[in-house]
Amino acid sequence: MFSQSRFRFPTRALLPLVLLAFVAACSSDEAPPPGCPVTNFVNDLDHVTVFTDGAVGDLTDVRFDAQLASLSAICNFESDELVMDIAFQVIATRGPANKDNQAAVTYFLAIADETGVVIAKQTFDNTLPFKGNLRRVAIKDEFEPTIPYPADQKTLNRYRVLIGFQLTPEQLAYNRARRR
User: Fold this and answer.
1) What share of the chain is helix, strand, coil (3-state, %, to 5)?
2) Do 164 and 41 touch, CB atoms closer than 8 A?
3) Separation between Cα atoms, residue 103 and residue 25, nearest integer Å
4) Cα separation, 149 vs 25, whole angstroms
5) pLDDT per residue over 18-40, tens digit each?
6) Which pLDDT value is given to residue 6?
7) What is the dihedral of CA 50, 63, 61, 109, to 10 degrees?
8) What average pLDDT does this structure show over 43-59?
9) Angle (CA) 68 70 76, round 5°
């Protein structure tokens, strides 16, 4: 069993992931709301292991290991846009080479349209402190991205909200090698 510390960060007010490429269409109050975009973590980008001085692979050089977990997404259909409530946890485990008692991570939220093209992306930096002798910590982060309705609202359920760590090429290769 591990000790887990939770830190709550305030909801980010209307995340500036506004999609300017689409014009909001008029909608009838009688029509059902469009479907909610699929929201998920990106394979191979949902985990990061950070080593000291780029010493990828030697477990004694691990500063920390972090993963994304407990994703929830709720859609709120407004008159001309979709406002989503997205929350997830970032869980970090301290490694033997961690000298500063913290795990500094960068992750992203991106929105891909019905063709799979990423039309909006924003990165976020966060630091998880290992207080005292805690070996494992977690934070919950919340976001409220808005998506103006596309010309064809029926395509909205084919949009995707993607979440992952912003990794270096070496970190991505390490993740892919671990999954084999």
Assistant:
1) 15, 45, 40
2) yes
3) 44
4) 6
5) 332 232 333 344 565 677 899 99
6) 36
7) -10
8) 85
9) 115
Task: Name beta bridge partners: 82.
Answer: 77, 147
Q: What is the rounded distance in angstroms from the CA atom of residue 39 to the CA atom of residue 36? A: 9
- Smallest CA-to-CA distance from 51 within 68, 38, 63 is with 63
Tokens of 66: 């972090």
Question: CA–CA separation, 83 vs 72, rounded Å?
Answer: 14
For 92, the token pair is 């970090």
Q: Residue 32: what pLDDT? A: 59
What the block records as the tokens of 38 is 């699929």
Alpha helices in 5-113 (DSSP H): none
How far is Cα 130 from Cα 26, in angstroms, rounded to an integer? 50
Q: Which two tokens stand for residue 91?
A: 């869980």
Predicted TM-score (pTM) of the model is 0.78
